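Subject: mismatched residue count in predicted assembly?

I count 577 residues in my input, but I want to confirm that the predicted structure covers every chain. Input:
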Amino acid sequence: MSDERKEPRRRMRPADIIVQALMTLIAAVVALPILEVVNLSLKTKRELYVGDPLALPLRLAWENYGIAFERLRLGTAFLNTLLYTTISVAVTAILASAAAWAIARNKGRLFRLSYLYFVLGILIPYQALFIPIYVMGYSLHLINTVFGIVFMYVAVGMSFCVFLMASFMTQVPLELEESARIDGCSVYRIFFSIVLPLLKPAIATLVILQAFGTWNDFLMASLFVSDTKLKTMTVFLRYLFSTTSQDYTTAMAAIVILFVPIMTLFAALQKYFIKGMTVGALKG
Amino acid sequence: MRKSSLARRTELEFASLMIPGLFLFSVGVIVPMLLGFYYSLTSWDGFTKDLPWAGLSNYAKMLADANAVSAWLFTLKFTVLNTVIQNALSLAFAVVLDGNLRGKKVYRTILFVPCLIAPIVAGYIWLRMYSDVLPALNALLGTKINFRLFGSGDTVLPGLLIVNQWQWVGYWMLIYVAGLQSIPVELYEAARVDGASRTRQFLRITLPMLAPAITICVVGITVGSLRVYDLMVSSTSGGPGRSSTSIIYQIYNTAIAGRQYGYGSAMSMTLIFVLLVVAVIQLGALRRREVQL
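Triage response: the counts match. Full output below for your records.
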């Protein structure tokens, strides 16, 4: 604090002003598409076709959101996406933390080989395996079931999450675990009552990364759910984009609806997330 | 004796914590990979009970298939350009936004936010940007820039690269920012005492100290680029013509639309092989730099 007082805010040099101006311009360009989506989602269809896309709406056409929810039954897709994302992220967080903790606390060959086996998976994207994944899902009757799609999201997210959580394990102090063990606590009890609560920042990072991956996933959802009742938002939007080019304002409203929850989650966990990226990404 | 049996029990308990994750990962990723390899050696159409054995003929077929080759070329071009551009931009923004700029956190958040948008939606948004919004900007500024980048085979790659930078630069930038912040300030102070220039400080301190972040970003961006697919679904549909059909897109067309599961699997296996080889080479080269520190 005292340092800051002694040295008043450095005067901006011309070079700093140029950089500042340039960054502001870049930020404006980056923000433009998002602002434009919001802008278009609040226009009437007439305005959209006749008017200038950059102009603001004459009046706010909130009814576009109502149309998106009601006429398109977006509500179901929204709830499905929320359900699949919540369950799969929660299950992944617990299972990946458990595996990563077990790996971090044991030096045996079994554990080291398991870690390598998990980490290998990071380099195998499920997008390259969608044919056998689809065939397998079909023959095991997992297609068009909630269990099937959640199972797959957890399975394909596991390797990255184990890697992520393993890199955080140095942050968990051993002393607490050891004294709990002396008190006769089982491994499971220690995991749930000591380790898991200590991993909060790590779990926040995992939750954000997994949640936005799953929430925004298209390919797996398009393979696994064709039943209208089980469709996710992205599958639904794909349909909306390709069939109803005239319903462009509704599509824009639907995009905003898709974006708001994930943005809220990010805003809520942002503090942990940035800390998490620092530790998790760089120690690995 | 008692102690060792207790240790053994504890180890088993630990192993049991790992088993659910191992099981799910094996069933959802490893088993499909083995199945995919098996399919790639057959000419299965996805319907029949038996899978007709085809040996390596699918792999030979791929090399002679103009569509598969062009999908590979597109994917490789996209990957190389994207890896270079995205790393350079992310690092540049990280350095600028780690300096003494005002409101740098706001800039960082703005740059990061697009990665929260689904790629399939990003594709759609930019389809609209290129076709209506940016041309309107032309009218406003009185310029005549051609923004219809998805309209021609020559400009579709730059068009998609722009969308991809818009979406992901902020994400990788954050990893570089984290890396920059973990560099001890004393190193720079010492260099300043020695009279090292800014450029020299960047080359001799910043870059070497960033090696772990560089490894993560280079490998991450490469792996991400090789599997590009969602982005094109709603923006270019792989076109115009076949000019933006990535390998995953081609696999989708071959397997789902063309009902050639065996052949599609061969392409998938080739992609996994390329991914593993590229990643191993990159990790080998980049890790060596980390060790030299």
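The CA atoms of residues 36 and 54 of chain A lie 7 Å apart. Marking this ticket as 'not a bug'.
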